[in-house]
Amino acid sequence: MKNIFPSILFLIGILIAFQSCGQETVSDNEVSNGHKPLFVVTAFSSNIKNVSLAELEVKWKKGELYYAADIESEVWQFFGSENGIAVYNLDSFAANSYNKLLICEIAHLQPQLIAISVNSIDYFEIPDEYPVYLSGWAQVPDSADFTRITITGVTALTRGTGNVADAKGLDFLITGVKDQFLHTDFLHISNEVSFTDNCDYPKKTMLFCTKKEHFEVLNMLGVDIVELTGNHNRDYGEEAFIETYKWYAENGMQTFGAGRNPQEAAKPLVLELEDGSTVAFVGFNELCPCGECADKPNEPGANRWNKEYAQKTIDSLRNAGVDFIIVSIQFGEVDSYEPSPSQKKITHFLVDAGADLVYGSQAHQIQEFEFYKGVPIMNGLGNFLFDQIHRIGVRQSCFVHLTFYQGKLIQMKPVFTQMGLDRQLKIATPAEEAEIRKVVVNY
Q1: What is the CA radius of gyration of the chain?
Q2: What is the reported pLDDT for 6?
Q3: In this structure, are residues 349 and 307 in contact, taking their beta carbons and an 8 Å threshold?
Q4: How many other C-beta atoms lie within 10 A of the C-beta of residue 154?
Q5: Is residue 23 part of a domain?
Q6: Contacts of 213 (CB under 8 A, 6+ apart)
């Protein structure tokens, strides 16, 4: 035994050296001290937007916090004790857990679970300062791989909005909301009006145009995507529409939902995101009430709704490997928070056809949010830059931040707004937001 013992010690030394060498190799090739975020989420219908770290710890000690069951050990590690309520079905939690909080990781995120701020820090805006994380992890999310796309409601720089721009300047229109887009990678607007050289802004008209100098507000906002499914883009004729269409391209803005001929109007817009995944926009106009659609050969205008073509387009995009498909419809206008039967029929059809998100671009009045078979439907976001102030329904609105990661929509966060009587759009006050949420989220 005495002769064997030194040999055993020698072998043990070799094994230790080998393991140490292996560990050095891992640390050389991976980030071994990275911060893995744990997200505090709540149901889409909830009112909670922020929680302090101290409040989280109190809730944990009381056994009031939920957590995704498959990361139990990580959650217990963060809080330093075994407690909380394990959740095995996150879809059920999202649908039935108003104002309850759950801890999860990035793989669990989905549109029906909104990640709230902790200590007033939104991970998707200031990841380096976010306080809920585990250190020492080799693989953590790269914030460069997140893409935020913001979808807004109706824009029509005309009539009263145009007169305010003349009197008070373009910045007056957007000063209340422009900082909301600082973390946006692709900003979308649905513009319904073409510009002309000799445009005027009469108070009462349904024939709309925009002065060329007022389109500078789109550059001021940093608009990247212009949707053209609206009803009034051909109000001043085909030439005005075509010149405006060219102007977008000259200013680095991509378009969809209309074109200089039917083929161009029907062409989807496909975006390549930072992580290499793709998102497509497809736009239609349901009724074309102003003769705005491109129906004839070489006729410019909007893409007319066609059920069979919609299915074919979605199938084609999916077969081409597009990761996420967004379909927009300019529906017939209704003065109601509730979508019309026609809207519901079409939005549900599009989800069944394979769309990953559906929204209505027509709504001057904000309309209900819906999750059909788990797929988000934004029936109508209301006015973004338009002059209607004659009743509360058309003054209420929102825009929505969509966050994508690895080809998946992981967050859908509405920002509720309200138009002032001076026609300046502002973030809704807590009381105003509560009134809006009551009719479009918690109905």
Answers
A1: 26
A2: 39
A3: yes
A4: 27
A5: no
A6: none
pTM: 0.92
Angle 39-42-48 from CA coordinates, rounded to 5°: 105
Q: Nearest CA to 304 among 296, 314, 313, 293? A: 293
* CA dihedral for 127, 133, 134, 137, sign (positive or negative): negative
Give me the CATH number covering residue 189.
3.60.21.10
Do 273 and 210 lie in one domain? The reply is yes
pLDDT of residue 21: 38
pLDDT of amino acid 307: 98
Q: What angle do CA 386, 205, 363 make, to 5 degrees?
A: 35
Helix (H, G, I), strand (E, B) or coil at 157: coil
Which residues, 6+ apart, have CB-to-CB distance to 264 below 8 Å?
Answer: 294
Of the candidates 195, 243, 193, 233, the residue with the CA atom closest to the CA atom of residue 384: 193
CB 302 within 8 A of CB 258: yes
What is the domain range of residue 309?
145-440
CA atoms of 41 and 37, how far apart (whole Å): 12
Task: Confirm if 327 and 307 have CB atoms less than 8 A apart.
Answer: no
CA distance 344 to 440: 15
> What was the pLDDT predicted at 131?
97
Residue segments in the chain with a per-residue pLDDT below the cut of 70: 1-33
Q: What pLDDT score does 33 carry?
A: 65
Instruction: Look at the chain and report how many structural domains it folds into.
Output: 2
